[in-house]
Design a protein that fits this description.
- The protein is of the alpha+beta class.
- It is built from 14 helices and 13 strands.
């Protein structure tokens, strides 16, 4: 049986859910029918557009732009503050409904998820017809619309759901890539941010089709592993599975929502160092070592991206986790202001499990810091000493000098 995956995405979720809530409270105007946006407090985090109505889109208003810019484009714009408790409740209702259709659900944000339709295909029939029935049932039951993308892998299903909106189902199977996806600008490709677009433009790669036919070695030279990933996505290559379980149960991680956006690489690295210390400490406390390290970034546009790598040998040392996280960051960051940063570790193994070490497992310490680098054995002893002090006197009893002025809210 061929694999079939759905990507289900609520159309303008925040605005739709807020509109329905106001109507239930007696409002006589539907936010979806007028130029309107959902936006934060203009005095906090600079106030950005979280969601927009179709009439607002006609004025050129974009998700993620400052509210003050949106008001210049449309002075009659109606603003509604976000209600995140409402959104979490609506999200839970949707996921519960979908899980009764098919239990193989991977929720990736408050308003979107992947569904592995393969196990229930015999019950519900041909994928496109089933997707149409699902989206129509959601509209009838909850009062808002969704788009559903259909393919044999996650990245193509995601791309398909972003085709014409709202309230539509689209297919994007491998044999349809050439006609449906390759003519699109490369900026339309999932995970291809602005800095990647600019780098590809210099290589005269303007469409997804151009990217799909590009030389992988040239892409790797300019965009490292991120360039290879984009090439694979452009060719519809994605082996990732619909993760129906909570991967955090098999890993240790930490994330932080910043009080002020991180604007520079140096700002981000200070945060990553703090996160690496926390994650590494938790690994050592649980007597575990991580075989995979990943980072996640949420931009101030609320777009989330992530990147990960598998290690040849598992680690729990702060410096190694930090330097690996920095390398991942350099491959992933688009230069957009950052609201949230996170480090995750997985593929955990007991620390007493035998490990075959090699020279390639040494920390990748920049040349500018080699004079202050210490040996792996001394680093291990230092980590143990710091862990002991923190256990006895509290987590904040020992703090790196470079972290004293970081003002973050950990989540």
């Amino acid at each position: 049986m061929h694999k079939t995956i759905f990507h289900i995405d609520v159309n303008s979720a925040y605005l739709s859910w807020s509109a329905l809530e106001l109507l239930s409270q007696g409002a006589d105007i539907d936010l979806r029918d007028i130029p309107s946006i959902i936006g934060g407090d203009m005095e906090k985090r600079h106030g950005v557009v979280l969601a927009k109505s179709i009439p607002a889109k006609a004025y050129g208003i974009k998700t993620g732009e400052p509210i003050v810019h949106a008001l210049r484009k449309c002075p009659c714009l109606t603003l509604q503050a976000p209600d995140h408790m409402l959104y979490r409740r609506r999200s839970a209702e949707l996921m519960d409904f979908l899980s009764h259709i098919c239990p193989d659900i991977e929720q990736v944000s408050v308003d979107e998820c992947y569904m592995d339709y393969t196990p229930v295909a015999a019950q519900y029939g041909e994928p496109y017809s089933a997707a149409v029935k699902i989206k129509d049932s959601i509209h009838q039951r909850f009062g808002y619309t969704v788009n559903i993308g259909i393919s044999n892998c996650k990245v193509l299903a995601k791309m398909a759901s972003d085709f014409q909106k709202p309230d539509l189902a689209h297919t994007l199977f491998p044999e349809e890539i050439k006609d449906k996806m390759w003519p699109l600008p490369v900026s339309s490709l999932y995970m291809c941010g602005q800095s990647s677009v600019e780098a590809l433009k210099k290589l005269e790669i303007l469409t997804i089709g151009d990217l799909a036919s590009a030389d992988k070695s040239i892409l790797a030279a300019h965009l490292k592993s991120h360039g290879i990933m984009l090439w694979e996505y452009a060719n519809g290559i994605d082996s990732s599975k619909v993760a129906t379980g909570h991967t955090d149960l098999k890993g240790i991680g930490n994330s932080v929502t910043l009080k002020e956006d991180a604007l520079t690489r140096e700002d981000a690295f200070r945060v990553l160092l703090s996160l690496a210390e926390t994650v590494a400490g938790r690994l050592r406390k649980s007597r575990q070592m991580a075989g995979m390290i990943g980072i996640e970034i949420k931009y101030n546009t609320f777009r989330k991206v992530s990147h990960q790598l598998t290690l040849q040998n598992p680690v729990s040392a702060t410096d190694i986790i930090y330097h690996k996280a920095c390398s991942l960051f350099d491959e992933l960051w688009d230069g957009i202001p950052i609201r949230l940063l996170g480090i995750r570790t997985s593929k955990l193994k007991p620390e007493d499990e035998p490990v075959q070490l090699s020279l390639f497992d040494l920390p990748e310490i920049p040349s500018s810091h080699r004079d202050t680098a210490i040996s792996t054995s001394k680093q291990k002893k230092l980590n143990q000493a710091l862990d002991s002090i923190r256990k006895k006197y509290g987590e904040d009893s020992v703090i790196r000098g470079s972290l004293l002025h970081i003002k973050d809210d950990e989540t």
